[in-house]
Amino acid sequence: MRPSSLRARAGALRRLLLVLGGALTCGGFGLAWYVGRFGRREGAVPAEVGVVLGARVLAGGVPSGALWARVEKAVALYQQGLVPRLLFSGGTGLHPPSEAQVMRALAVRLGVPAEACLLEEQSHSTEQNARFSAEVLRRLGAQRVVVISDAYHLLRARQYFRLQGLEVATSPAPSGERLEAVEHFYWTVREAFALLAHPRVLLARSPLR
């Protein structure tokens, strides 16, 4: 093959890669806009269980700001009568005890009866939050849940819970005092590209549809 033909093919390949890269980037930022818009919407409705997704536990078992905010929002939903039980989902990270245990202790301090609190302590990812929580929910016979997490996380979380055959509403924990605008933008874009990398999750539909 002539050098000119090789150069032409290489040029065509570069142009194709640039087009694909541009399309992916535009799609990613477009989805990030939707992720942010979706997460800001309060979608809580009466449900059988509120599922609270874990966040980092600091040294000494101290709850991080994200964990505090998620539990406070879950407690508010419980006190409003929207959910009669709370399922705390999160395993043990760098610092024990498990995220679920720390969340339950905090919820009890805030007035939720211990018997209304359930634990899922195996998960270390959003996919595992949904999969292991679904096992607990099936044993309860629960089908409708409200998932509580940070706003940027809610769309991907909902999709994973939908894959488990659950009817899912979402409720955002307040993040204004914890996250700067740049941080919020970073996590929102990160969530969008995580969804693009897993089309099966992105396209999951409600079991009622």
UniProtKB/TrEMBL annotation:
<dbReference type="GO" id="GO:0005886">
    <property type="term" value="C:plasma membrane"/>
</dbReference>
<protein>
    <submittedName>
        <fullName>Uncharacterized SAM-binding protein YcdF, DUF218 family</fullName>
    </submittedName>
</protein>
<dbReference type="Pfam" id="PF02698">
    <property type="entry name" value="DUF218"/>
</dbReference>
<feature type="domain" description="DUF218">
    <location>
        <begin position="51"/>
        <end position="191"/>
    </location>
</feature>
<dbReference type="InterPro" id="IPR014729">
    <property type="entry name" value="Rossmann-like_a/b/a_fold"/>
</dbReference>
<dbReference type="InterPro" id="IPR051599">
    <property type="entry name" value="Cell_Envelope_Assoc"/>
</dbReference>
<dbReference type="InterPro" id="IPR003848">
    <property type="entry name" value="DUF218"/>
</dbReference>
